[in-house]
Amino acid sequence: MKAIGYIRVSTQEQASEGVSLAAQERKLRAYAELYGVELMDVVADAGASAKSLDRPGLQAALARIEAGEAEGILVAKLDRLTRSVKDLGTLIDRYFGEKAGFRLMAVDDQIDTKSAGGRLVLNVLASVSQWEREVIGERTATALAEIKRQGGHVGREAFGFEMRDGRLVVNEAEAAIAARVAEMRAAGATLQAIADTLNAEGVATKRGGRWAPSTVRNILQAAGR
Fold first, then answer.
1. Residue 111's closest CA among 120, 98, 101?
2. Tens digits of per-residue pLDDT, 17-37?
3. Catalytic choice (10, 16, 129, 214)
């Protein structure tokens, strides 16, 4: 089988080795060699959000399979392709469904749409992914409302939020980090250990600095943890 590899990172993720462009490409090439996939090219979107399908790299990859250069697309993980159930539905209808006939393979998620079972797993994982993001958004919004109720100040610098079109909205990348901080704390990690982990992974704070126990504590307190 011939495939086009697709890799993506958002700005927040670029410093993380686990999802870096280089790490994703290594994973795709290892998978291709193991399963006999002829990797025609690897197309990248650097610093691109998965909120929309309107990404140069993705559109180029899709155009190339439509042109007959390859039979499908290979990604390291489904969320590199999209984080939206709606957008996934569009991709399935146009490209990766049974009628369209193109193939989607996601290494980490063990998805291969060649089979009906693979297409079912694809839909289930996308639904779970969207649910997780909505839960994070709800928890962060609840924390924000509580801070306001108690008379606390919440401005554009609050971790997990950003100003967009004059409105304070959830920053999904930061909200995901906040959720991870809460998970590590719930698992018994100390504030210092959490800060050390984030610093070691190159994750920046809201202002681009290094993490400290007090920074971690502020996020946990804002989330009611």
1. 120
2. 457 889 999 999 999 999 999
3. 10
Q: Would residue 178 be called left, alpha or beta, if left means φ above 0 and alpha means ψ between -120 and 50 degrees?
A: alpha
Q: Using CA atoms, how far apart are residues 30 and 26, in angstroms rounded to an integer?
A: 6
Distances (CA, A) of 118 to 60, 87, 98, 105, 124: 24, 18, 11, 9, 10
Share of the chain above pLDDT 70, in %: 77
115 is catalytic: no
Give residue limits of the domains in the chain. 2-114, 132-222
146-162 pLDDT, tens digit each:
655 655 545 545 677 77
| CATH of region 2-114, choose from 3.40.190.10, 3.40.50.1390, 3.40.640.10, 3.40.390.10 | 3.40.50.1390
